[in-house]
Amino acid sequence: MISVRLEEDGDAAAIRQVNVAAFGGTLEADLVDLLRDRGKLLVSMVAQSDSAIVGHIAFSRVVIESHAGLRGVGLAPMGVLPRMQRYGIGSALVQAGLDRCGRLQYEFAVVLGHAAFYPRFGFVPAGRFALRCAWDVPDDVFMALELRSGALAGVAGVVAYEPEFSVT
Questions:
Q1: What is the pTM of this model?
Q2: What pLDDT score does 167 carry?
């Protein structure tokens, strides 16, 4: 049985292992460690099977440069151990993470990810909200979701992630 919970003290090493295995390298694991070390993980959740951590999701602050007062989060990264993929663990992490961000009164979320996966949670191409990613990425993989209905009405601009995303 899979359960999803907030990251706790002592989870960092297992989270690192999940991200290294899920992404086939250390880039995402290093990013999570850096965000954690600098106190910039706003929401960090794990999926657990029995007592083993098998998945992880992280959310950190993003800002729309022309609307810095809006409270936004970037979903990145989200990883599941390869042997545990395709069992709904990633979906459970995304849903639990978005629910948590909504309860914490974040107004919108963005993700740079698979165009076939994230729309099931309500994400749409960010261009529909006149939002652009700070990096040059294809329009269909940079997506946004209003966590508060109407939060992005009349908003336009470039979405910037924490500086740590440019360090790793």
A1: 0.96
A2: 74
Contact 126, 118 (CB under 8 A): no
Q: What is the 3-state secondary structure (H, E, C) of the chain?
A: CEEEEECCCCCHHHHHHHHHHHHCCCHHHHHHHHHHHCCCCCEEEEEEECCEEEEEEEEEEEEECCCCCCCEEEEEEEEECHHHCCCCHHHHHHHHHHHHHHHCCCCEEEEECCCCCHHHHCCEEHHHHCEEECCCCCHHHEEEEECCCCCCCCCCEEEEECCHHHHC
For the stretch 76-130, pLDDT in tens is: 999 999 999 999 999 999 999 999 999 999 999 999 999 999 999 999 999 999 9
d(CA 163, CA 94): 23
Residue 119 to residues 33, 100, 111, 113, 135, Cα–Cα distance (Å): 28, 18, 10, 10, 21
Encode pLDDT of 31-54 as tens digits. 999 999 999 999 999 999 999 999
CATH topology of domain 2-167: Aminopeptidase (3.40.630)
